[in-house]
Design goal:
Layout (H helix, E strand, L loop, with lengths): L3 H31 L18 E5 L5 E8 L2 E8 L4 E4 L7 E7 L4 E7 L10 E8 L6 E4 L2 H6 L7 E6 L6 E6 L8 E6 L5 E3 L8 E6 L5 E6 L3
Antiparallel strand pairs: 1-2, 2-3, 3-4, 5-6, 6-7, 7-8, 9-10, 10-11, 11-12, 13-14
Length: 224
């Protein structure tokens, strides 16, 4: 027989799932209204973009983020489980939200791509940060197209790890010092300020291994 201590996390997860379903219901109702009653679903329904996808909860479990089709593009929405609200936080019209990540309880990272293009015409990239209400957006790394428009050499920044207890900073990887090797930085997503953590770099590094305190301990190099 389960104890009340064991049942509490289960109840919380069930409540979260119920709240997400309740907030997603209007989107599902729109989908149902657009579909004519039929014994079989039209083939075209299987090619439609999902109404809500890639749901992730904030570390404290009070919010969730999801990717939603808005005007033909995947954008990011955030649901507040305590206030029972669903807020659109991005409004991209020429790109789609690819991956995203909670930094803390109130800030997210996202990268972009173009879902209308094939694999041979990949567009997007970049790394962007914003608050859960859409405020304080910050470009941390431009898209490939933005680099070309600015006549710049793209040096992309990639998310590596969250920093426990921080709402604004992350551990990131970038090849800014040398195009052929990756370094690890502590990156403030509001100011863009970076602190180099791998001052001793053997060169040709593809990735770094960090310990539980986010200290770089070993490198994986293409030079062996």
């Amino acid at each position: 027989m389960y104890s009340s201590v064991m049942l509490l996390p289960i109840a919380r997860r069930a409540m979260r799932a119920f709240m997400v379903a309740a907030l997603a219901l209007p989107a599902l109702q729109v989908c149902a209204a657009d579909s004519a009653p039929s014994a079989l679903l039209p083939v075209s329904d299987f090619a439609k973009k999902p109404k809500l996808a890639s749901i992730q909860f904030s570390p404290d479990g009070k919010r969730f983020a999801a990717v939603r089709d808005l005007n033909g593009r995947f954008n990011l929405v955030v649901g507040d489980l305590e206030k029972s609200t669903l807020t659109q936080v991005t409004s991209f019209k020429t790109y789609d939200v690819g991956g995203y990540q909670w930094i803390g309880n109130n800030r997210l990272l996202t990268s972009l791509y173009d879902a209308s293009k094939g694999l041979a015409e990949t567009r997007g990239g970049g790394l962007f940060a914003l608050n859960a209400d859409g405020s304080e957006p910050k470009e941390l790394s431009p898209t490939n197209e933005a680099c070309q428009a600015r006549n710049q050499i793209c040096r992309q920044i990639s998310f590596v790890a969250r920093i426990a207890g921080s709402e604004d900073e992350i551990i990131a990887s970038a090849n800014e010092r040398d195009a052929k090797t990756q370094d690890v930085y502590r990156l403030n997503t509001k100011t863009g300020r970076k602190t180099l953590l791998t001052t001793e770099n053997p060169g040709g590094v593809e990735s770094w291994l960090l310990d539980q305190n986010n200290v770089p301990r070993a490198a994986i190099s293409q030079n062996g």
